[in-house]
Amino acid sequence: MATKKGGPTYRCSECGWTTVKWVGRCGECQAWGSVDEVGGATTRTLAAARVQRPAVPIREIDGEQASHRSTGVPEFDRVLGGGLVPGSVVLVAGEPGIGKSTLLLDVSARVGETRRVLYLTGEESAAQVRGRAERIGAVTDGLYLAAETDLSTVLAHIAQVQPDLVVVDSVQTIASSEVDGSAGNVSQVREVAGSLIQAAKEGGFAMLLVGHVTKDGSIAGPRVLEHLVDVVVQFDGDRHTRLRMVRAVKNRFGPTDEVGCFDLTDGGIIGLSDPSGLFLSSRHINVPGTCATVTLEGRRPLVVEVQSLVSPSQIPTPRRANVGLDSGRLAMIIAVLDKRAGAPIGNQDTYVSTVGGVKITEPSSDLAVAIAIASAVLDEPVPHTLLALGEIGLSGEVRPAVGVARRLTEAARLGFRTALVPVGALADAAPPPGMDVVEVTDVTAAVAEMRRRHPADNVRRLPST
């Protein structure tokens, strides 16, 4: 945009938007505190008088220096792509109380058994961290602890200890005396992160930064923070359940489709190499209104059970309540069952929930939700060895899902013997041994197949419209 001749220009450091007057919030990207004055540069940056580290041919560079080193926590290593890379900076973000500090203290203790670790806390005192470390069994000789909030002192601690791993909890509590403003504002976070990242790159040690999140779940501070670090790890989970999931949002050294599962207990945080059992109820009893499915969290298949309850409504507008599912998809599935399969649920309350507090966002779980609701309407149990996979369209057809072979292999390992899948789902792969795969074209055929595998006594059919 045009500016007044001779007047100052202000530019947003996040998106580059310019204006002729200073504003607290960028008019383009809506970032707070990112608009600064652009000074009129009278000179250009010249070449350095002497190069400190000359460029070398790529074949002469030692690639082993960028290899992964295990943290001693297999689930955390899975998310990172094999472990921590020397010189890398990992940003761990999550809601307050979700378990970030507990996980990183456990990682620090595991690494501290063979290497030197410096744990810097700006939120708690050293005594408080020591008490938590004793509770979770994270006290080791190689773990050094300091409670500091001044950036220069933090850098001095790093230079004195010479650690292999540095943990900063958290980056929003550290402040530099050279920058105006309190700890946590945009300028302070940018300066603190830049200084710590430079120290990690020059010192060749790995660094774990704890980051706070805002109300909408995004990382607090400037967006440039996520661009500067090498890995961004998101810590998710319901505070009312013990399950915690760690997934990589950005990873320069590995994949971003891996998920680590943890169980947060009073004695610490425990990695779950096989978390599928957490999302299943007692499977030796056939109960109406339940059906299992397999979701993909990254590349990891998880067997999840969906439960449904349908009862006559006492109010003019029936309730549609759900836990762990998308409300829009649930409403669509109910409408398809009502219109295409003749299920009389238009005037009945419908409650749908997942077991274990897991959240399902994949469309491939639509068929399992429809089977669970139909089972509740018919009051007929679904065999506990049956599961369903597939996306449901508005016309009632069942559409294919990705990774069906991988999902069925995990289900067969857990004892499932029958799977309802879309037509052509296993065109390029064979079903797992012992698994009876039944292809269905629409939701009506899926419900009929479910009823066919149910004992014939006391069977009630879906009434026609």
In short:
This protein is α/β, with parallel strands linked by helices. The chain contains ten helices and 21 strands.
Describe this structure in words.
The chain is elongated, with a radius of gyration of 28 Å. It has 3 domains: 1-39; 66-273, Rossmann fold, CATH 3.40.50.300; 278-452, Ribosomal Protein S5, domain 2. The protein is built from 10 helices and 21 strands. The strands form 5 sheets. The chain has a 9-stranded mixed beta sheet, sandwiched between helices. The protein has 465 residues and is an alpha/beta fold. Strand 5 (117-121), helix 3 (126-136) and strand 6 form a beta-alpha-beta unit.
Q: Considering the protein shown, what is the CATH homologous superfamily of the largest domain?
A: P-loop containing nucleotide triphosphate hydrolases
Q: What's the helical proportion of residues?
A: 10-25%
Largest sheet, in brief, is: 9 strands, mixed
Radius of gyration: 28 Å
Descriptive labels:
465 residues; alpha/beta; Rossmann fold; Ribosomal Protein S5, domain 2; 9-stranded mixed beta sheet; 4-stranded mixed beta sheet; 21 strands
Lay out the secondary structure.
Layout: E1 9-12, E2 18-19, E3 35-38, H1 74-80, E4 89-94, H2 100-112, E5 117-121, H3 126-136, E6 143-147, H4 151-161, E7 165-169, H5 186-203, E8 206-211, H6 224-228, E9 231-236, E10 243-251, E11 259-265, E12 268-271, E13 290-297, E14 300-312, E15 320-323, H7 327-340, E16 348-354, H8 366-378, E17 386-388, E18 391-392, E19 398-399, H9 404-413, E20 418-422, E21 436-440, H10 443-452
Parallel strand pairs: 4-8, 4-9, 5-6, 5-7, 7-8, 15-16, 17-20, 20-21
Antiparallel strand pairs: 1-2, 1-3, 9-10, 10-11, 11-12, 13-14, 14-16, 18-19
